[in-house]
Amino acid sequence: MATDADAAPHNAVTYHITAGDALGQFGVRRSGEVYVNKLLDREERSHYELMLLATDGAHVTVTTVTINILDANDNAPVCQPVSCCCRRCCCRRCCCCYCQGRI
């Protein structure tokens, strides 16, 4: 958040994202808080560097905001077919039975 020591109404600060967000995935509130505007996918991109501009109409300052996207387990596990690794199938304990949904 930027501050301006001028007296009102000359101390109103507005914010703008000027670089690093070509797809419009982020926005910035009047308070200067950056928020997610569109769905993000860590598998596509895990890191963003936004250039954020703050201005009171007369003066301008710029800063870099770094955003690291954390991984979320958004994909269900998938078992591949396997050959049975035990002598008696359907023992309800082997990997073959587990992947075939018998456990």
Give an overview of the whole structure.
There is one protein chain. By secondary structure, the chain is mainly β. The longest helix is centred in the C-terminal third of the chain and has 5 residues, at 95-99. Strand 4 and strand 5 (60-68) form a beta hairpin. It folds into two domains: 14-68, Immunoglobulin-like; 73-103, no CATH class. The chain has one helix spanning 95-99; strands at residues 14-19, 26-28, 34-36, 47-55, 60-68. The protein has a three-stranded antiparallel beta sheet with strand order 1-4-5, with no helix packed on it. 5% of the residues lie in helices and 29% in strands. The mean pLDDT is 79. It has one helix and five strands.
Essential attributes:
Immunoglobulin-like; single chain; mainly beta; two-stranded antiparallel ribbon; 103 residues; 2 domains; three-stranded antiparallel β-sheet
The N- to C-terminal Cα distance equals: 54 Å
Name the helix and strand elements from N-terminus to C-terminus, one letter apiece: EEEEEH
Q: Give me the number of helical elements.
A: 1
CATH homology superfamily name of the largest domain:
Cadherins
Could you name the CATH class of the largest domain? Mainly Beta
Summarize the biggest pleated sheet.
3 strands, antiparallel
**Protein structure class:** mainly beta
Q: What's the rounded overall pLDDT mean?
A: 79
CATH-defined topology of the largest domain: Immunoglobulin-like
Low-confidence stretches: none
With strands numbered from the N-terminus, the spatial order across the biggest sheet is 1-4-5
Q: Mind telling me which CATH architecture of the largest domain this is?
A: Sandwich
How would you sum up the global shape?
Answer: elongated
The number of domains: 2
Secondary structure: number of strands: 5
Helix content: under 10%
How big a fraction of the residues is strand? 25-35%
What is the C-alpha radius of gyration, as a whole number of Å? 26 Å
